[in-house]
Amino acid sequence: MAEPTIYDLSSPGRIGFQFPKSDVPEAQLPAQLVRSDLPMPEISEFDAVRHFTRLSKLNYSIDSGFYPLGSCTMKYNPKINEVTARLTGFTKLHPHQPIETVQGSLALMYDLQQWLQEISGFAGVTLQPAAGAHGEYVGVMIIRAYHQDRGDTKRTKIIIPDSAHGTNPASSSMSGFDVVPVATDKNGNVELDSLRSVCNHEVAGLMLTNPNTLGLFEQNVQEVINIVHEAGGLVYGDGANLNALLGIVRPGDLGIDLMHFNLHKTFSTPHGGGGPGSGPVGVAKHLVDYLPCPVVGILEEATQEFPPFYGYVEPEKSIGRIKAFHGHFGMMVRAYTYISMYGKHGMRKIAEGAVLNANYLMALIKDTYKVTYPRMCMHEFVVEGHFSDAPGIHALDIAKRLMDYNYHPPTNYFPLIVPEALMIEPTETESKQTLDEFANALIKIAKEARDNPELLKDAPHYTPIGRLDEVKAAKDLVLCCWIPES
Ligand SMILES: *Cc1c(COP(=O)(O)O)cnc(C)c1O
């Protein structure tokens, strides 16, 4: 049944507001502002509240259920983050205010830059990028600036493993580089011979996701980095999976030259539904001068009486500004809150919990679903969503059927190198009970796939809307419920 629109509730003459009697003369609106073609619904305030409350509950969210969407780190977003991000001292600022009136916010940004550096082992951080993909783009521009500055202008290629997220080749080619793929070996690592064969004086850099999108720690990471460095290239870290490494491994210490953070994944700022995200980029010492401008710095050191005085610093060879003002400041407040709530020692517990939960869940289902690369995983793992004795059942059917059990489906058909991939990331914030129940649902669905495959093929059955024509939805996108009759 189609959902009623707010227009279906409309009844002529019904109103949802009352203005006091006007005590000023009525003004005439400019004619071009008055539109009689807008069909405004006529409903009471209570009807409007019920309508939108009901609509809000149709959407699945991390606050309503388990959300094991691999690579997205859908962890609990602590509500204290929202309290701090809404403090009027932050929300009522204007980005053009004189710096002496925004010292608190600059201190927060400065500390967050410092903390991200300490967590990752880098020497400098920009908070400007709007998301991970934007961070990649910034990273590639920094790589180009670094080579050009050295007069090394022949480097036109970026190497990207075939397990990589689609944003890696996209951001590289948008910046004008040619993308060179390298294969994954049978253990789920970068194939070293394949890497060696493409490393030469034309290579500007490698983009490396570690743990990679199979949820596996790159076992030869040191060797991979050395091979690229020996060819004169830089190594960019895709930091989307940093959650598995917090407090244990620092990418900068491994020799990675620069990397983005996804504050909306690792540091619990909310995501889904399109944003906003935040993708700060950390860089090693030799790249600090190229960071986008401005970064927040200390203009006057603290004295016994006064705290430090913060302001904006322009790195010497900066690639320039890459986002209006300072980036998504509200996300920075949330990430700052999250990191301070956990503290230095809590960071490591986050990673340990995430890795433990993923391995526990993998152990529960590994006899039912094939694990393509069966070794200890990090914060997530990938299984194959098909069975030799249930032909016609695909990962998509399993994902859709999970919705009937009130779960958000895992990421499916990614990474591309695993057939019928289901990529599962439970995160550290889920309880053992939730993981047990989810594993039971997956095991039940595997049985249904053999006994009653139609149940999967037609799923979901219990959601507000049934199975969608995904091709049509993508090709024929309709984003508003009311389309003017031209
Ligand atoms: C999420 C993700 C990205 C892109 O990050 P956004 O913040 O969504 O732009 C890149 N690589 C990997 C592995 C990811 O999981």
Can you give a write-up of this model?
This protein has helices spanning 45-58, 79-85, 88-91, 103-120, 132-149, 167-174, 192-198, 221-230, 251-254, 329-365, 395-404, 432-451, 453-457, 470-475; strands at residues 124-126, 157-161, 178-182, 203-209, 234-238, 258-260, 281-283, 295-300, 309-313, 370-371, 381-384, 411-412, 421-424. It has 486 residues and is of the alpha/beta class. It folds into two domains: 80-341, Aspartate Aminotransferase, domain 2, CATH 3.40.640.10; 345-473, Aspartate Aminotransferase, domain 1 (Alpha-Beta Complex), CATH 3.90.1150. Pyridoxal-5'-phosphate (PLP) binds next to helix 5. Pyridoxal-5'-phosphate binds next to helix 5.
CATH class of the largest domain: Alpha Beta
Poorly predicted regions: none
Q: What value does the average pLDDT take? A: 95
Helical amount: 25-40%
Q: What is the H/E order?
A: HHHHEHEHEHEHEHEEEEHEEHEEHHH
Strand order of the largest sheet: 1-7-6-5-4-2-3
Beginning-to-end CA distance, first to last residue = 27 Å
Strand content: 5-15%
CATH topology of the largest domain: Aspartate Aminotransferase, domain 2
CATH H-tier superfamily of the largest domain:
Type I PLP-dependent aspartate aminotransferase-like (Major domain)
Radius of gyration, rounded? 26 Å
Instruction: Please name the CATH architecture of the largest domain.
Output: 3-Layer(aba) Sandwich
**Overall number of domains:** 2
- Largest sheet data: 7 strands, mixed
List the ligand species. pyridoxal-5'-phosphate
